Amino acid sequence: MTRLLIIGPPGSGKGTQAVHLARHFGIPAVSTGDIFRSNVSRATELGTQAAQYLDGGDLVPDHLTNALVRDRLLENDVRRGFLLDGYPRTAVQAVELDNMLAASGLALNAVIELRAPDTELEQRMRKRAREQGRTDDTVDVFRRRLDLYRRETHEVVSVYAARGILVPVDGSGDPGEITAQAIAAVEKFLAAARA
Ligand code: ADP
């Protein structure tokens, strides 16, 4: 059973890599951004509450996000492991996740950090804006998301680095090569942790 996280700034290709890595490790990818977007498009109660935050590039309040993840991690498919994408994004969420897992005697195995230079992040966002039309893919909202990543989520990365479970991966360049490098880095890390 492998329990993984993927963390990276907006435009780092986190969602794309999450899908490939999850397939490789035979575990479900759980993306909080995707779950929020799906709720917004179906106009559920959660979607109605979350829409304003998504559109402004702000973080959805911790209590809503934590409840969403708590419910999702109680479903059957994640018993064999999971790859969380987009959560935790704040120090409070990171503590919550530890508590959720500890309640079942579980812990994270590894945290993949995707890194890429700002210029490349913005280029990818512009490409995605043309292809997918996400309401939060405008230059202003993107900069707000990047700023929030630095202010809030970077702290989460430090927590996992201090715990010795961070696996940094260079996220610039060809997506297929990044997947191959990420798989190799995670497998090496997991093998060393087991030894
Ligand atoms: P990106 O990494 O490109 O910003 P995501 O799909 O991960 O895209 O997230 C999109 C939006 O969903 C965020 O800007 C935020 O509004 C909301 N969101 C996703 N995950 C979280 C989270 N863990 N906490 C708060 N808000 C979140």
Give the mean pLDDT: 96
Present as ligands are: adenosine-5'-diphosphate
Number of helices: 8
In angstroms, what is the radius of gyration?
16 Å
| Topology-level CATH name | Rossmann fold
C-alpha geometry: globular
What is the beta-strand fraction?
Answer: 5-15%
Class derived from helix and strand content: alpha/beta
Determine and state the CATH class: Alpha Beta
Main sheet: strand order: 2-3-1-4-5
CATH superfamily: P-loop containing nucleotide triphosphate hydrolases
Task: Write structural notes for this entry.
The protein has 195 residues and is of the alpha/beta class. It has a single domain, classed as Rossmann fold, CATH 3.40.50.300. 60% of the residues lie in helices and 13% in strands. The protein contains eight helices and five strands. It has a five-stranded parallel beta sheet, sandwiched between helices. Helix 1 packs across helix 8. The chain is globular and about 45 Å long. The site of adenosine-5'-diphosphate has 18 residues, from helix 2 and helix 3.
Using brief descriptors, characterize the structure shown:
binds adenosine-5'-diphosphate, 13% strand, 5 strands, 195 residues, alpha/beta, five-stranded parallel beta sheet
